[in-house]
Design goal:
- The protein has about 110 residues and is mainly alpha-helical.
- The protein folds into 2 domains: about 80 residues, no CATH class; about 30 residues, no CATH class.
- About 65% of the residues lie in helices and about 0% in strands.
- The relative contact order is 0.05.
């Protein structure tokens, strides 16, 4: 799998995607993932001099504010994934209880063959 990524130049493709301004939180790629990728590729630079257009900064700051507010709201309102799955999908059973239950089912199904 690693060789396939090397052969198909996935690292370079990811970096090209990272550099496209349209790839942002609204495009379905959370900002933290881009930052993680940049760090992993040793390309993260927190001392970048931006070539900004002053007349667009107010709009950009509104967008940043919206992203911060949205992230906080979603973090507060979203349930803990483990607890949600436990409650809704597994009738409040622990991971071990679900595992043991399924191992028993598997064992019975295997014996029935």
């Amino acid at each position: 799998m690693k060789q396939m990524g090397i052969d198909e130049k996935h690292k370079e493709a990811c970096w090209r995607e990272y550099r496209i301004p349209a790839n942002n939180a609204e495009s379905g790629v959370p900002d933290f993932m881009w930052a993680m990728m940049a760090v992993a590729m040793n390309k993260f630079d927190d001392d970048i001099k931006l070539n900004t257009k002053p007349h667009l900064m107010e709009q950009a700051n509104e967008k940043f504010s919206w992203l911060r507010t949205s992230s906080k709201r979603n973090g507060v309102n979203a349930p803990n994934a483990y607890e949600w799955h436990k409650k809704v999908l597994f009738s409040n059973k622990t991971h071990d209880e679900v595992l043991q239950e399924n191992l028993k089912k598997y064992s019975k199904a295997k014996k029935a063959k």
